[in-house]
Design goal:
The protein has two domains: 1-31; 44-146, Immunoglobulin-like (Sandwich), CATH 2.60.40. Helix content is 19%, strand content 41%. The protein is built from one helix and nine strands; from the N terminus they run H-E-E-E-E-E-E-E-E-E. The chain has one helix at residues 2-29, and strands spanning 44-48, 54-55, 60-69, 78-86, 89-93, 105-107, 111-118, 124-132, 137-146. The protein has a five-stranded mixed beta sheet, with no helix packed on it. Strands 1-3-7-5 form a four-stranded antiparallel beta sheet, with no helix packed on it. A hairpin with a 4-residue loop joins strand 8 and strand 9 (137-146). This is DUF3872 domain-containing protein.
């Protein structure tokens, strides 16, 4: 009977050692990467303040846009491009020269204003694409009917 008790005690001590060894292995193996991983690629959303639905020829409409990244990485750059499908007009960033269709322009701020000036008397439809330096992209469409 004493033999059984000694065997049971040894077996119990082994059972206590096994979880401690497994826990130690799990802790030590999680630290085997020598490099610190820093997330740089954060998806983003865009918001646009409401704009008028109608526009007259030579009238300018202000478009307020804000980029909302899901995280922060200081070196992220944002770019904009646009293309006009219907009508004609000019889109510009603050007081800069008007954008050329499908050309890419760097944005210096996450919150900015665009100014669209109509040059036609028909409905106008265009899209802007905002892209970051990691390939994330958002599309916003604008449609204006003629006031006249």
């Amino acid at each position: 009977m004493k033999n059984y008790i000694k065997i049971a005690k040894r077996f119990a001590s082994i059972l206590y050692v096994i979880p401690v060894l497994i826990l130690t292995e799990a802790i030590l193996s999680s630290c085997n990467n020598d490099e610190l991983e820093i997330q740089q690629n954060f998806p983003f959303e865009t918001s646009v303040m409401p704009v008028p639905k109608n526009i007259a020829k030579n009238e300018t409409v202000e478009i307020r846009v804000k980029i909302h990244p899901s995280g922060s990485f200081n070196k992220t750059q944002y770019y904009i491009r646009y293309f006009q499908f219907d009508g004609s007009g000019a889109l510009k960033y603050y007081d800069e020269a008007p954008f050329l269709p499908n050309d890419v322009y760097e944005l210096s701020q996450k919150e900015f204003r665009l100014y669209y000036t109509s040059t036609s008397k028909v409905s106008q439809n265009f899209k802007i694409w905002i892209k970051d330096s990691f390939g994330n992209e958002k599309e916003v469409e604008f449609q204006f009917d003629n006031k006249d």
